[in-house]
């Protein structure tokens, strides 16, 4: 017999908006406290919206995989359509499935390997500008590097001018994006505020850049081996054989550009922070790099010999998941864990909460790459670790991100030992992704 939603545990009703305010002030602390106090299914209201927080991997699998057709994207991704249009992050239903078929060839294994060689070259060039004893903000450094990689793989030869301009426009757009969960954000966007004016100007600037690039590429018809060439050449062979319109190419290009550098940059920045705090892990990583590479720069062919480097990156993704929460909205009534819930219910699933659950990870805040040995990984529930989501909407660039993270980590760590400056504050900034709030000021110590 199922229980009704009213019997599901959760905080008692408070003043209107109080829960939303608490979530806005400290979202990670808020969802962590709810899960710790009320368990695997927590009922509460986010503003006026009935909401569930799920922390059981079985329930998360049910929403993301088993019953995925009954759940649409949550409010944040719906509102992201104001920026990204109908890209893979924001589109739904049959249109999403068609777009995924069209974009998928750009992420096939052989194509990813070609991108990997460029990743390693660009990382090598980036670290060549560093100097022993230099102080850098590692978060900013990784943003610059992954921006260069995303621009190169997306725009090819046009990257220097285009990627930097796109990044500047993205910065202005993301300033307003933090207001997305608020129930009055649609009204806010219509007010003559400076941030709103910057938002509209930046979106117009992005459109001008991307549409001009698309027009020039269509005119020359050249395949430059980059993602943009793949998007322009894609045909829906399982459907009507047509390709993408200029608007669809624009939407997917912006989605790939944003997702392709923001998340990986944060993951790498947190990885170097963790290595600076755990010298024994850093020493083992360097030993692997010395044995596998013999002093030279890594290539894609070296990846099978960089197993510990991948484990280090995987553990950093567990401790500091760039995508720290996923939201879905129920299209029809549904049952979960023996309980019944109404259509329209918002379902939240937090990677931060699940990745720090001691049921899956003993001493969960300890940095331990050994958790990602193949046998340890196989013994855990698939959805005890889901940094890239899961089901039909799993990140299409997951293999791209694993390759980039491992190659960049190996390229930089073989020559440098970044050390966090004494007294530098380290705090979370959970917005679209999980950034270090104050950056990560580090001293670059060269390896002898």
Structural account:
The chain is an alpha+beta fold and 448 residues long. It has a domain at 1-84 and 324-386: Cytochrome p450. The chain has 17 helices and twelve strands. It has helices at 18-25, 27-38, 57-66, 75-84, 93-103, 109-127, 138-155, 159-177, 185-188, 194-220, 227-233, 246-277, 279-293, 307-319, 351-355, 374-379, 398-413; strands at 41-46, 49-54, 71-73, 135-137, 326-330, 334-336, 339-341, 346-349, 416-420, 428-430, 434-436, 441-446. A hairpin with a 2-residue loop joins strand 6 (334-336) and strand 7 (339-341). Helix 1 crosses helix 2 (27-38), helix 7 (138-155) packs antiparallel against helix 12 (246-277) and helix 10 packs across helix 12. It is globular. The mean pLDDT is 88.
User: What's the average pLDDT?
Assistant: 88
Level-1 CATH class name of the domain at 1-84 and 324-386? Mainly Alpha
Low-pLDDT windows of residues: none
- The span between the termini is 67 Å
Largest sheet: 5 strands, mixed
Number of helices: 17
Categorize the overall geometry. Answer: globular
Strand % is 5-15%
List the secondary-structure elements in sequence, H or E.
Answer: HHEEHEHHHEHHHHHHHHEEEEHHHEEEE
Structural class: alpha+beta
Q: Return Rg in Å.
A: 22 Å
Architecture (CATH level 2) name of the domain at 1-84 and 324-386: Orthogonal Bundle
Task: Tell me which oligomeric state these chains represent.
Answer: single chain
